[in-house]
Specification:
The complex is a heterotrimer. Chain A is mostly helical. Chain A has helices at residues 2-7, 17-31, 49-60, 65-76, 113-123, 134-146, 160-174, 184-188, 223-233, 244-255; strands at 102-104, 109-111, 195-196, 199-200, 213-215, 219-221, 266-268. Chain A contains 10 helices and 7 strands. In chain A, the strands form 3 sheets. In chain A, strands 6-5-7 form a 3-stranded mixed sheet. In chain A, β3 and β4 (199-200) form a beta hairpin. The longest helix of chain A is centred in the first third of the chain and has 15 residues, at 17-31. The two termini of chain A are 31 Å apart. Chain B has helices at 3-22, 33-36, 41-47; strands spanning 56-58, 63-66, 70-71, 77-83, 88-95, 102-108, 115-120, 126-134, 137-147. In chain B, the strands form 2 sheets. In chain B, strands 1, 3, 5, 6, 8 and 9 form a 6-stranded mixed sheet that branches. Helix content of chain B is 20%, strand content 37%. Chain B has 2 domains: 1-30; 32-147, SoxY domain (Immunoglobulin-like). Chain B has 3 helices and 9 strands. By secondary structure, chain B is α+β, with helices and mostly antiparallel strands. By secondary structure, chain C is an all-beta fold. In chain C, the strands form 2 sheets. Chain C has a 4-stranded antiparallel sheet with strand order 4-3-6-7, with no helix packed on it. Chain C is elongated and about 55 Å long. Classes of the chains: A mainly alpha, B alpha+beta, C mainly beta. β6 of chain B pairs antiparallel with β4 (55-61) of chain C.
């Protein structure tokens, strides 16, 4: 009984972002010894050859290709004013997603990649998209992120105000919520890499790089939609996608995956 | 053997020889609604032309099947079948506990390898039966696949 | 030409390994619409005819038990560069589609 209680307690990481990341890394090195950090991107599949074989087989020719193709159509269709999405981003949006979320000093808030897509629409006189609509923002994000596949996650926390947002995200990560009274850290830090019933809990590091996911090969979830599902799973009312709370969480959460390569549109069970 | 039977056997062989020269070597057919609507695995297997259970020859070594041990998601289970049996004409795939167990069938001509990979739906943990028709004989290999309910946080 | 069929072809030693995907709901008829609660009717591909340079080499019969956006991998024998592989599909609602690929 005490062991079970202890298993779900956790101490909040204290220190600089790099020190936080080190705490997460050392916890996982204990929970899943011998597994290279590069494998963490496979999350709950990483210890099962059977699961990875299915993943490889499906990813070889994914059934959700048509969603990515639709996203490409949205990306390439000019706005009413003749501009296109590529003009809103540096480098034509190639190899940039790994820098998001970033802290915007002027606007004094965290900007996610999906927010940047919506800003682009608004700046060009178009209606912004609904963050949780798989047909619009989901499809667009799936394609737009693919332009950065392979890029390493490289989140920066460069100022005191940025650090403030990072800390807000971290506080939410460690806060117990919902009817089950669990924090993200309860499962994914303290027990990241361990089994909970028949589920392998994915470690925090390696999660933020592989979104959107297509669960069962068909249900699209952006990272923030996935946060919402997790909150519902512990019996909490979820924050909205695009809210400051989830943006700050994504900022903190993504930083922890710095150094790992991005891969958009992946299969998950 | 009485003379009438001998004559019948001879005529039968002669007809078979003539038929094989006149008919195309591969016979393509319409989708068999009768077979695909069967709800019981035994009825399904009978409906494809197996007349007695004893007619099915167990051939786990001659039919290579690649399937997961535990399906990540029952809606999309990758399956690969390669028949090493000479003159494979048709490959049938069944998922024993599906509402209609016959999943798919493939008519193989000399123009393709007796090989097929696809993705199937399985409603629950069950045996997948692969039946190969070659030279008028039905051969079977079977493998169990465990199917669980979706992952963390899924409906 | 049809946008419903995707091909990936690899030729080696006169054998063309062909992978196709047909974008199709393969609806079982067991699901209900989340809002209206009505049953979504069966809608699935039942037959796929595959030809190599105009001659039929394989026939595929599918059912509702085949996954959505069905995938198929098969191997064409006696294949050469420039050969044509044709996929013709038909579903239970009378819809159909055709896809062609040139082996290279």
């Amino acid at each position: 009984m005490l062991a079970i209680l202890l298993a779900f307690m956790h101490t909040q990481a204290v220190g600089t972002p790099e020190e936080d990341r080190a705490v997460f890394l050392s916890t996982f090195a204990v929970n899943i010894p011998g597994i290279p950090v590069s494998q963490y991107v496979h999350g709950s599949m990483m210890l099962s050859t059977d699961a990875l074989n299915q993943y490889d087989s499906i990813m070889d020719f994914p059934p959700f290709q048509e969603v990515i193709d639709r996203g490409q159509e949205i990306w390439e269709t000019p706005f009413k004013n003749g501009n296109t999405f590529t003009e809103c981003f540096e480098n034509g949006a190639v190899n940039i997603a790994g820098k998001f979320p970033l802290y915007n000093e002027k606007l004094k808030r965290v900007i996610t990649f999906e927010m940047a897509l919506n800003s682009c629409l608004e700046q060009n006189g178009e209606m912004p998209m609904n963050y949780i609509d798989p047909e619009t923002m989901g499809a667009l994000s799936a394609y737009a992120r693919s332009l950065s596949d392979g890029m390493l996650m490289q989140i920066e926390v460069a100022s005191a105000s940025a650090m403030n947002k990072y800390e807000l995200g971290k506080t939410l990560y460690f806060r117990r919520i919902g009817q089950y009274n669990l924090a993200c850290a309860s499962c994914h830090l303290t027990n990241g890499g361990r089994y909970f019933r028949d589920e392998l809990l994915s470690p925090t590091i390696g999660q933020a790089v592989h979104f959107p996911v297509f669960r069962g090969g068909e249900r699209l979830y952006t990272l923030q939609m996935r946060y919402q599902r997790c909150m519902e799973a512990v019996g909490a009312v979820p924050f909205e996608s695009g809210s400051e709370a989830l943006n700050n969480l994504e900022y903190f959460h993504s930083y922890l995956s710095n150094g790992l390569p991005l891969q958009s549109s992946v299969y998950r069970r | 053997m009485n003379p009438t039977k001998e004559r019948r056997v001879f005529l039968h062989s002669a007809m078979a020889l003539i038929s094989s020269l006149l008919l195309p070597s591969t016979v393509f057919s319409r989708w068999d609604a009768n077979a695909y609507n069967k709800i019981d695995i035994t009825d399904s297997i009978f409906s494809i032309g197996v007349t007695n259970p004893g007619d099915l020859i167990e051939a786990n070594d001659a039919i290579d099947i690649s399937l997961p041990e535990i399906a990540e998601n029952g809606a999309i289970v990758p399956i690969t079948v390669h028949s090493k049996i000479l003159d494979t004409k048709r490959i049938f795939v069944f998922a024993e506990k599906n509402p209609q167990p016959l999943v798919s069938d493939y008519i193989i001509s000399k123009g393709v390898e007796p090989f097929v990979a696809s993705r199937i739906k399985m409603s629950e943990t069950a045996f997948v039966h692969v039946i190969v028709l070659a030279n008028g004989t039905f051969y079977r290999a079977a493998r169990q696949v465990k199917v669980t309910i979706g992952g963390c946080g899924e409906e | 030409m049809d946008k419903t069929v995707r091909f990936r072809v690899r030729l080696k030693d006169n054998v063309a390994d062909v992978k196709i995907m047909i974008f199709h709901p393969m609806e079982t008829g067991y699901r209900r619409d989340k809002n209206s609660k009505e049953i979504i009717p069966q809608h699935f591909i039942h037959t796929v005819n595959i030809a190599h340079n105009g001659e039929q080499i394989m026939q595929v019969h599918w059912s509702r038990s085949v996954s959505k956006n069905p995938y198929l991998n098969f191997r064409v024998l006696s294949a050469s560069e420039g050969d044509e592989v044709t996929i013709a599909w038909n579903d239970n609602m009378g819809q159909s589609g055709v896809g062609k690929a040139i082996i290279s």
